[in-house]
Amino acid sequence: MAAAFITFEGIDGSGKSTQLRMLASELTARGLEVVTTREPGGTPLGASLRHALLDAEAEVDPLAELLLYAADRAQHVRTLIRPQLAAGRIVISDRYSDATVAYQGAGRGFPVNLINEVVQLATEGLKPDLTLVFDLDVEEGRLRQTRRTTNGANKSDRLDMETDAFHTRVREAYQEIARREPERVRVIDASGSIAETHLRAVQVVELFLAQRGTQHS
Ligand code: ADP
């Protein structure tokens, strides 16, 4: 089985994590070897960084934030993603470098060339083979998250406290990335039910795997 690196992106509350779990079970049920992970926090070091980055009480300078995400990613790429790909597995990550372009670039306003340099440094040039951008209204994303928080499933984090304008810039940045790299990045309408969105995601991934299968055979 050929390895593949798939990333899920989108604003908070767009349903990425839910869809990632569902897609991973679906692919596993079909006999594929799948590893799921996330950024920040895909490694033991990353888990500490995630805590530091998302703690609602913490004050994190934007440059420090950019570099902490980069540190998390370097550890992630070198100790988890590359070894798992080398072992022939399908790695699916909840967020990766497009999140830095969207959040630290468009969201916080760091210049594109600085963002690109930091991304290149942290990833050593490793790009996803396929990226699904779960596209949803900022307001709907907030509603879903509020429901999740009141259910007690999750505490609100530092990013939840950002303005709608911030999250709108992030959403638009993801759409722009998809326009720029249509081969790699597919936008999935995430406004429907969990089941509808799952169907859309499965269709895109099936097509991708089928095309890869053809290329590799
Ligand atoms: P993300 O990882 O993008 O932040 P989650 O998958 O954690 O999003 O979903 C956020 C919340 O919204 C969760 O409580 C989840 O159950 C709920 N949710 C996910 N997808 C949908 C959907 N299509 N419709 C309604 N609620 C959803």
List strands and helices in order, with pairings.
Elements: E1 4-10, H1 16-29, E2 34-38, H2 44-54, H3 62-86, E3 90-94, H4 97-107, H5 112-123, E4 130-135, H6 138-150, H7 164-180, E5 185-189, H8 194-216
Parallel strand pairs: 1-3, 1-4, 2-3, 4-5
Helix pairs in contact: 1-8, 2-3, 3-5, 4-5, 4-7
The structure holds adenosine-5'-diphosphate.
The main pleated sheet reads as: 5 strands, parallel
Supply the number of structural domains. 1
Instruction: Write down the overall mean pLDDT.
Output: 94
Shape: globular
Distance between the termini: 11 Å
How many runs of DSSP E, i.e. beta strands? 5
Secondary structure class reads alpha/beta
- The fourth-level CATH homologous superfamily is P-loop containing nucleotide triphosphate hydrolases
Q: Approximately what portion of the residues adopt beta-strand conformation?
A: 5-15%
The helix content is 55-70%
Tell me the name of the CATH class: Alpha Beta
CATH topology: Rossmann fold
SSE series: EHEHHEHHEHHEH
CATH architecture: 3-Layer(aba) Sandwich
Bound molecules: adenosine-5'-diphosphate
Strand order of the largest sheet: 2-3-1-4-5
CA-based gyration radius: 17 Å
Helical element count?
8
Uncertain parts: none
